[in-house]
Amino acid sequence: MADIPTTSPTAEQPLPGGNISGAVRVGSTVRRATGPWTPAVHALLDHLAREGVPHVPRMHGIDERGREVLDYLPGEVVDLTAGPLGLARLESLVRWARRFHRAAASFEHPGPWRFWPTGGPTTLIAHNDLGAYNLCFAGDELSGVFDWDLAGPSTPLLELAFIAWNGVPLWSADVDSGSAAERLQLIADTYGGVDPVTVLHAVPGRIQLMIDGIPQAAERGDSGMANLIRLGNHERDIGTRAGLLSRIPRIDAALARLNRAQR
Fold first, then answer.
1. 169 preceded by cis ω (within 30°)?
2. Domain boundaries, position 191
3. In degrees rounded to 5, what are phi and psi of residue 214?
4. Are residues 101 and 61 part of one domain?
5. How confident is the model at residue 20 (pLDDT cuts 50, 70, 90)?
6. How, if at all, do strands 68-71 and 59-62 pair?
7. Nearest to residue 154, comparing CAs of 106, 201, 206?
8. CATH code, domain carrying 93
9. What angle do CA 229, 232, 233 make, to 5 degrees?
10. How far is residue 216's CA from residue 220's CA, in Å, rounded to a whole number?
């Protein structure tokens, strides 16, 4: 694919976030640093485009600075300091994840991928980082899913577990058990074929993968993962996972009460 000329630096608009790699907007495109995983990610994005999966950026080549050039996806990025994702937005995300997983199930690629090994069988290439910081919305409907650098072999359950971690959000001690149970039930009902208790109990293992994988990747020279450690994200994840483990029995009880009430 031909190189795409870089526009004047004055036309570049830094985008918020970007604790791993950062990104800038140039007109209707986004420019981001690449890595060894980039060819595999681009192949995945091309596959999803052929499958008609919405809200996924198209890839437009590499600019003369070696940055990938992707669609800029317009929409509202949620300010989580104002509260968690609304229920309608959470439902829209899970509906999209179900469609994405169906399309991704027919995709194969040897990698390399940036995502760390799961330690068990994998069934598809997942996004692996479906937090509100990588999403945008038009009203209550999902309108964009970006930052695909952590895509890699995983399972639907691990993807749903990470959605629950961020979308309930199970990392937060401020979410009461009843609200957590209702949101887990929403995730399970919207996706279909999975039990909310199963999703809940998959979360600690999914977060442990991240806790173990980030420093290992940093030691191998992944500067983005090293940056997460410098910013304190890794230490914070260790603490919030421990907090979740202490709350799981109460959430289990709330799910049991919800199940009885729905009979």
1. yes
2. 83-262
3. -60, -50
4. no
5. low
6. antiparallel
7. 206
8. 3.90.1200
9. 80
10. 6
